[in-house]
Amino acid sequence: MGTPEYRTCPYPVYQSLREQAPVCKLTTRHGVDTYLITRYEDARLALSDPRIGKDMHEGIEIYHAVFGDTCDALDDNLIFADPPRHTRLRHIAHEAFTPRHVKLLRPRIEQLADELLTKCPTDTPVDLMTAFALPLPVMVICELLGIVGDERNDVLKWFGQVTRSRFSKEMGDELAEAEHWLRNYFLGLVARKRAEPADDFLTVLIQTEHEDGALTDDELVSMMWVLLFAGHKTTTYQIGNAVYSLLSHPDQLALVRADRGLLPQAVEELVRFECSVETSTFRYALEDVEIGGVAIPQGSLVQIAISSANRDPEKFAEPDTLDVTRKGLQSTHLGFGHGPHYCLGAPLARMELETALTALLDRFPEMVLATPETGHEEWLKGPFPAFRGLEKLPVALDPSRTVDDWTATASG
């Protein structure tokens, strides 16, 4: 499953697994038995099954097998927590992700999108990932956390070092140095915000009380880490996937251009069709569990293939067809998860996607894919194992002005 062909298009493999081995035992580089779940109904049940835990520290040997000797303080967050601790952490985070706070961000996100697109050249193809899809979510998350000015560049430099090191086979001094820098920076940021509170996201995280206590400094650090990592990586790749999907399906793009009222449901379909989260974060069996008729022994790792579940024909009619008029998806597709670990940032991600697509369609209604003559089939590869996204997305924003040393194509 690690072949270039699979990374480019995993859906035929998932189809075979759904039909022949819907709960498939895998041998991974971690040396821990892993079970991959590919059918929709099994996936939905597994995402909410209390017998399948996420607190990897309870199985510390599994934790180190998967993550190596990394900074536990950064990983000690609500993603890797079970009740009752997860309940407390989620309650506090939910207070910061209120609809009011998210709604207040829309004008600023629209402004940021407009500023980024203003800088894009129109007489030559532009890599939309670098110029737009990456910086927009990064700016949003940094503003949420109060990371401004030159500090933002420093944070992103060390953050990039952590993500590169964690997903490579070499996890040495560079990783430790980057994690140490980030932890100290986040602690300083918390101290400054305690001294000068404001009506913002981080202040709410600091001040929100729960019956079992407010967040500790270490918990705030890990919360900021997961927001920075999950909050920008997933949205970056989803923006790229959405634009790519629309530009390579001109009939669907035409529908959205003609009726912007379709955008909210189009966003749901774009997430279902080409989700940036290909597989869930790791879970593990707290006890012997049976799923889809397969016995999963206690202590085994469990992963849910989100991209497979979202294309299960038992749940979605013609699942391999992009249909922006498809209804009823918000409560059914698994692009934002399901159950107690359902993505807290889903409302923000939806708004960012809708805002990004609106800004692009308003300013560059004739944009098309711009690909080297070798084609585009190698683009869609997950840069990290759990993610599915584009490393590059060359686009001719105004084909009438684009130099013709590239091939502009509306069909992809």
Indicate the structural class: alpha+beta
Cα separation of the termini: 25 Å
Tell me, briefly, the overall form: globular
Could you give me the name of the CATH homologous superfamily? Cytochrome P450
What is the CATH architecture annotation? Orthogonal Bundle
State mean pLDDT (0 to 100 scale): 85
**Which sheet architecture does the biggest sheet show?**
5 strands, mixed
Describe this structure in words.
The chain is α+β, with helices and mostly antiparallel strands and 412 residues long. The protein has one domain: Cytochrome p450. The chain contains 17 helices and eleven strands. The chain has helices at residues 4-8, 11-20, 40-47, 60-67, 72-75, 85-96, 99-118, 128-133, 135-145, 149-166, 173-195, 201-207, 217-247, 250-258, 263-273, 306-309, 346-363, and strands spanning 23-26, 34-37, 52-53, 126-127, 283-285, 289-291, 294-296, 301-304, 368-371, 394-396, 407-409. The chain has a five-stranded mixed β-sheet, with helices on one face. It has a four-stranded antiparallel β-sheet with strand order 4-10-9-11. Strands 6-7 form a two-stranded antiparallel sheet. Strand 6 and strand 7 form a beta hairpin. Helix 7 crosses helix 9 (135-145), helix 9 (135-145) packs antiparallel against helix 13 (217-247) and helix 13 (217-247) runs parallel beside helix 17. The radius of gyration is 21 Å and the shape is globular.
